[in-house]
Amino acid sequence: MKRITIEKDVLKNNNDIAKRNREFLKNNNIFTINLLGSPGAGKTSVLEKIIDNITLNYNMAVIEGDLYTTKDAMRIEKHNIDVLQVNTGGACHLDASMIQKSLNYINTQQLDFLVIENIGNLVCPASYDLSEDIKVLVTSVTEGNDKPLKYPSMFQRPSVVILNKIDMLELTDFDKEEFYKDIYSINRDIKVFEISCRSNEGIKELSDYFINRIKNKKSRQY
Ligand SMILES: Nc1nc2c(ncn2[C@@H]2O[C@H](COP(=O)(O)OP(=O)(O)O)[C@@H](O)[C@H]2O)c(=O)[nH]1
Ligand SMILES: [Mg+2]
Q1: Which helix (H) or strand (E) holds 62?
Q2: Which atom of ligand 1 is nearest to 168's Cα?
Q3: Quick one: signal sequence residues (predicted)?
């Protein structure tokens, strides 16, 4: 029987490019996150909330992944930071070669913090290394607390989970106890921030966390 394993080859190629990007980002001390989550979880809203806190002292840029539109990039642009829209034309995730190209269009000279908002999807983006320092997953109470066990690879790899729309908790049957039990059963070291982009709960703590990570990267303590 003839057989080829395409996914492995694709991922190896991706990892090779990601390695080169990572070297560049490391040499320039740019703390980079890969922001993941389902459509509507609040990825762009979280960015809109933290940008002002971060840019008080640091330079930030955003790569916005989307299938076809520039809607998210237009939201970020209003905050006067460097933003680049990457349209995948239907592909369900970003890959390292897209980031490699994007880096040519971003002013990386004085850049401290790079956010890559991935395509909204709880499956494919988990496998692709985009040369980030950490993966950050945004999930929200309106999605239900069963997502960690239903999409374990999405919860296994991130260092940080943002539980968004906490303002809606009372309106849903979201079971926090079960959620925490499930995510820690998948990833014991995961850090969780409960936030609301509506009431601003937890936004300061989340911003401070990123600021600390930016500082550590600059002093090369990772
Ligand atoms: N009630 C509530 N709505 C939110 C919150 N965060 C985002 N939303 C809404 O959720 C929808 C999707 O948000 P968006 O940031 O576009 O999600 P993305 O697709 O993950 O980037 C928008 O209508 C937001 O206004 C929140 O904390 N509370
Ligand atoms: Mg978005």
Answers
A1: strand 60-66
A2: 1
A3: none
How far is 129 from 132, CA to CA, in rounded Å?
A: 7
How many other CB atoms are found less than 10 A from the CB of residue 127?
14
CA-nearest residue for atom 8, ligand 1, is 42
Q: Which domain holds residue 44?
A: 5-220
Identify the CA nearest to 136 among candidates 79, 187, 80.
Answer: 187
CA–CA separation, 167 and 136 (whole Å): 20
- Each residue's pLDDT tens digit, 165-197: 999 999 999 999 999 999 999 999 999 999 999
Determine the distance separating the centroid of ligand 1 and the alpha carbon of 45, expressed in angstroms. Answer: 6
Stretch 102-118: mean pLDDT: 96
Q: Which residue from 45, 74, 163, 170 has its CB within 8 A of the most atoms of ligand 1, so it is best to mutate? A: 45
Task: Count the Cβ atoms, other than its own, within 10 Å of residue 144.
Answer: 14
- The closest ligand to the CA of 62 turns out to be 2
**Residue of the CA atom closest to atom 12 of ligand 1:** 40
Can you give the CATH number for the domain in which 143 is found? 3.40.50.300
Q: Determine which residue's CA is closest to atom 13 belonging to ligand 1.
A: 42
The percentage of the chain sitting over the pLDDT mark of 70, rounded to a whole number, equals 96
Overall domain count for the chain: 1
Tokens linked to 143: 């999605």
